[in-house]
Amino acid sequence: MANARSQYRCSQCRHLSAKWVGRCLACGGWGTVDEVTVLSAVGSGRRSERPAAMPTSQAVPMSSVEPNLSQHRSTGVAELDRVLGGGVVPGSVTLLAGDPGVGKSTLLLEVARSVTQSGQRALYVSGEESAGQIRLRADRIGCGNGTDEVFLAAESDVHVVLGHIQAVRPALVIVDSVQTMSTGDADGVAGGVTQVRAVTAALTAATKADGVALILVGHVTKDGAIAGPRSLEHLVDVVLHFEGDRNGTLRMLRGIKNRFGAADEVGCFLLHDNGIDGIADPSYLFLDQRPTPVAGTAITVTLDGKRPLIGEVQALLATPGGGSPRRAVSGIDNARAAMITAVLEKHAGLRIATNDIYLSTVGGMRLTDPSSDLAVAIALASAAANLPLPTTAVIIGEVGLAGDLRQVNGMQRRLNEAARQGFTIALIPPGCDAVPAGLQVLCAPTVVAALDHMIDIADHHSSALATAHRLDTAQLVAGT
């Protein structure tokens, strides 16, 4: 025989406790402890055995299963399809999380409108706004007219939402947001651990039974993590994170989990007053458009997921006004910037530690990849020597504490992107065999060797500019 007893388990770290607490004693999460029921054996002291139940369906060999039962269907938004692996899959559940005001609802309204252009229906359920508010936003972004197949419902009861799904029979259901939904079959308030888990389970079961694609909008915490129980990410098939600076227009859609494709794809969007647009080639957003080269700048190629992006590093050295030198870094890891400064001071003999150092990227880009180390070092050296580099050169490589340069992953993909963008010179660590046509590769094993190459490139570029200037002057004089 076995009797039931109650325990309390954290939904994030699975820690068990004998009584309920508001904050998990193991991981420190608030509101993550929930009551669970466990069975303990009594009487004979042996574990109780439950007789095997008859299966409702027979297990079949893997070779007999059709591989094309779950096909992607395009959402009509190319950048979203890129992250999803080709589109949404009927019966799949996608969780889209992001900060307030980042553009989640705007993107999903565009998706709903695009789905209906193929003759299918879309149901947009909002627990935060009325149907009139959604229509006003749709009119503002140009999605209000010609969308008779987009159905709106302002509901917060999950059972009513299930009724709307049965009545409308849509191909796509959007729930904005899962934290505002509630059900009377579970305890707690809307947005709590128990409610979110119960609502997600009910919606998932209904949409998978009918073959309907479901997109859930999720809130995020102050730390940027998805709000709610950690098990929410395990219940869904795809987890997407929509991020961007509220003061800028660039938005990045990142795949965190994807059961139907790669989980490291990135989509780029521009959010403006009239809607949101996907960007197939976003590299120009991260370059400063200037007519002539400027000292203290270096261009690199970073990999965001599988996507190569061109980025620019800018450095400025100034004389400190008094006290300790100032360090201001934007878009670059502060610890890596300090490490690169120390390497230049120790191994290259650049006395820049006593200067105020300002480092930044263009367009709000974040360079977390170590492949941008060499570009930061070259930008600092260029600023210290007041020596501008040509705008056709890219710098890629990781800097070690011994002053050596290391290869980075995806070098071939980075060089191909640089060649496609029209760059002609690449300064990289040794070890790359395949070089794209039209790209001159300069290999440097150490930071000192890279600085020597930098001086040669800058001198050659200055000589070429001086020769061109003399030719232009001679032609002007001859014409006069």
Task: Please describe what this structure looks like.
The protein has 480 residues and is an alpha/beta fold. It has three domains: 2-41; 72-280, 3-Layer(aba) Sandwich (Rossmann fold), CATH 3.40.50.300; 284-467, 2-Layer Sandwich (Ribosomal Protein S5, domain 2). The chain is 28% helix and 25% strand. It has ten helices and 21 strands. It has helices spanning 78-84, 104-116, 131-140, 158-168, 193-210, 231-235, 334-347, 373-385, 411-420, 447-479; strands spanning 2-10, 16-17, 33-41, 93-98, 122-126, 150-154, 172-176, 213-218, 238-243, 250-258, 266-272, 275-278, 297-304, 307-318, 327-330, 356-361, 393-395, 398-399, 405-406, 425-428, 440-443. The strands form five sheets. A nine-stranded mixed beta sheet has the order 6-5-7-8-4-9-10-11-12, sandwiched between helices. A four-stranded mixed beta sheet has the order 13-14-16-15. The chain has a three-stranded antiparallel beta sheet with strand order 2-1-3, with no helix packed on it. Helix 7 (334-347) crosses helix 8 and helix 8 (373-385) crosses helix 10 (447-479). It is elongated and about 75 Å long. Residues 41-48 and 465-480 have low confidence and may be disordered.
